[in-house]
Amino acid sequence: MELKIFNEEHEIYRRTVRQFMEKEVKPHVDEWREKELLPREIWRKMGEQGFLGAYFPEEFGGFSADFLTDVVFLEELARSQSTGLIGDVMVSNDVVAPYILEFAPEELKREYLPRLARGECIASVGITEPGTGSDVAAIRTTAEKRGNEYVINGQKTFVTGGFYADVVVLAVKTNPEAKPAHSGISLILVPKGVPGFSVGRKLKKMGAHDSATAELFFEDCRVPAGNLLGTEGGGFVLIMQKFQRERLVTVATVLPACEMILEQTINYCKERHVFGKPVASFQVNKHKLVEMATELELARTFCYQLYQEFNNGNQGLVKEISMAKYWVSELANRMAYQCVQLFGGYGYMDEYPISRAYTDLRAFPIVAGTTEIMKEIIAKTMGL
Question: How do strand 142-146 and strand 185-191 relate by DSSP bridges?
Fold first, then answer.
């Protein structure tokens, strides 16, 4: 049984995106992974197809697509198996762009949104620091207002796509003495190239090697006061608001990854013979496959209901989205473990997609809020 949430237009769009991924992405995944860098040309090609900023109004280069259209794009992007492209595009297109679209002054919208839609501009978000991650209120990067400028000092790390991003939405303390601490946080748009902004090393990671994760440094970095997003001191609220979309689009990329590794494993277990019989014919193995298929089906049904609710304008799904993000991320890692085991020695070989999936998927219980943070959020909604 499949919950039908996509209409005919969505499915036509899906076929277009899938054809693009088959032609322009999949043949290059190994090359990008080895180089540990994505070519900017792939962004421009996606922009030419209208895949980026599809939900933007027409005046900013989009076609006012609904959230389900974005889910279709993310699902097909995930099936490309370029984990780096998935993460970098998701952050730029679905995490950063909404901040600019909803909270930036009009002149910044007109400067950046059309370029983002055309794939000429890549955006990232700088929140995590060496000393703090999920505890956003504890950030130490400061932005002191001097006249008509902000002077920024501090450091960010684990910035997805930060190595080649053209603009960063930066979380800063505009009032370090504020009580409570989160009331002193603001968001500022910082373009690459301004004096005092430097990009550090490209970080070596367990997986997602084609994603250019980086450190960012700010030393007396000056940006116009007009680059403030929303209101001064209102950044924490904006971050919390946008976390729901960020977590939901993360789920939209992880679910297809689960589907792919299960499909690959089933096919392998049918073809691979041990003791004269297919691996899938042994009860212990078929039961593992059945358990994974069942958990995945239940997760998909729940998540598709959330997509539909979110698409209908229900933004108050904090508990449910936190549940989905926690459950699907952990499910992906349980499945990856079992799938590698069913592949045996071949599952441990880097040339097999299941080996890469095992390391790539490990990031998802951490990014966009750890599993532990999700459980704390859920507990609060339960009055615990």
Answer: unpaired
Structure tokens at 365: 């219980």
Omega before 256 within 30 of 0, i.e. cis: no
Q: Rounded to whole angstroms, how far apart are CA atoms 68 and 54?
A: 11
What is the C-alpha separation between 152 and 156, in angstroms, rounded?
12
The domain segmentation of the chain, as residue ranges, is: 8-121, 125-233, 236-381
CA–CA gap between residue 224 and residue 188 (Å, rounded): 9
Fold annotation for 125-233: Butyryl-CoA Dehydrogenase, subunit A; domain 2 (2.40.110)
Residue type, 150: Y
Catalytic-labelled residue, pool 36, 246, 291, 372:
246
Fold of 8-121: Butyryl-Coa Dehydrogenase, subunit A; domain 1 (1.10.540)
Whole-prediction pTM = 0.91
Query: How far is 246 from 91, CA to CA, in rounded Å?
Result: 8
pLDDT digits (tens, 9 = 90+) for 72-115: 999 999 998 888 899 999 999 999 999 999 999 999 999 999 99
In the annotation, is 246 catalytic? yes
